[in-house]
Amino acid sequence: MSRIRQFGSENERGAALLTVLLLVAVIAILAAHGIDRLAGATKLASNARELSQAKAYLIAAESIGMESAKQIVSASPGRTSNVGGWNGREQKVPVPGGIISATLADGGNCFNINSLVTQQEAVLSARPEGLAQFARLMVMQGVLDGDSADIAESVADWIDSDSVASPRGAEDQYYLQQENPYRTANALIVDVSELRTIKGMTDEIFVRLAPWICALPTTDLSPININTLRPEQAVLLAMLGAVPSDLTPARQFLGRRPDLGYASLNDFWAQSYPASLGASPEVQSQVKLATRWFRVDLAVEMQSALIEERVLIDAALQPVRLVHRQRGDAY
């Protein structure tokens, strides 16, 4: 009888030991899971703090960019040049926990996509000169003549107020027949990425054009500042000609421009190269000697956060004002 009790007692001790081991294993798993969740929550909180700090740095950098634009304009009213090397130069500034990269550039040295129309009160209508310049720009970027005309008219139709399609353009009737139907904006383009939705604009063509186009909040013809235009931007000068042309003469002309630029448009148009473009009076007055629009490309890199931003500054306003902000991929 004592043997039976002893045997049973050993079985009970084994079962108790097994139960204890199982409880220890369960507790260890729960503890590991809790620690992992705590570590994740701590990491998320740290990332949120860094993201918040990065956004604060961007706001500070915007203010510095606006002050820089103000100083550039104030230093030489009526004539903005590249003196000082500010135009297109990247600057990196170390900050606690990361680094800020900033590039200030002439924001008007681009093709203003909204110049495809004119505005009379609230009515937007296609502008022939804007269409011609856009088509020439595309041809000089390797886009076929026919495709260039189709895209130019389609973008004008996208912006203009009417619902009548141009001969090579497209209005609502075209877009409503797509797999995912939508309508034209009938308003100024706010961001050049809108062009991806327009008839004829392929990803390949958009990538070619993106570095040269912008969406200024005005329908004025592209305000090319001949005193800040860099040789590598020669296509923006060549597009002002009556027909697409070789870029070499434009690059050479910009390369030998006086350091302080030109004091008057008459001095500029009197030079042999721009005179050979055969520009109309409308185009001649389009060229500028001073910069109104400034673009700032910003990036804040922290240990676990990277935020990129592009802002447009209007230096004609008093005080200087930020008129557009885009965070993330510019295109």
Question: Can you summarize this structure?
Answer:
This protein has 331 residues and is an alpha+beta fold. Helices cover 43% and strands 16% of the residues. The strands form 3 sheets. A 5-stranded antiparallel sheet has the order 1-2-7-8-9, with helices on one face. A two-stranded parallel sheet has the order 3-6. It has a two-stranded antiparallel sheet with strand order 4-5.
Verbal overview:
By secondary structure, this protein is α+β, with helices and mostly antiparallel strands. Helices cover 43% and strands 16% of the residues. A 5-stranded antiparallel beta sheet has the order 1-2-7-8-9, with helices on one face. A hairpin with a 2-residue loop joins strand 4 (117-120) and strand 5 (123-126). Helix 2 (128-140) packs across helix 3 (145-159).
Main pleated sheet: 5 strands, antiparallel
Quaternary structure = single chain
Distance from first to last alpha carbon? 88 Å
Radius of gyration: 31 Å
Could you say which overall geometry the principal axes of the C-alpha atoms support? elongated
Tell me what portion of residues adopts beta-strand conformation. 15-25%
Low-confidence stretches: none
- Order of strands, widest sheet: 1-2-7-8-9
Number of strands: 9
| Helix percent band | 40-55%
Tally of helical segments: 10
Order of helices and strands: HEEEEEHHHHEHHHHHEEE
Q: Helices and strands: which structural class?
A: alpha+beta
Mean pLDDT: 90
Helices and strands in order:
Layout: H1 2-75, E1 89-95, E2 98-106, E3 111-112, E4 117-120, E5 123-126, H2 128-140, H3 145-159, H4 172-175, H5 203-209, E6 213-214, H6 234-238, H7 248-255, H8 265-269, H9 272-276, H10 281-286, E7 293-302, E8 306-314, E9 321-327
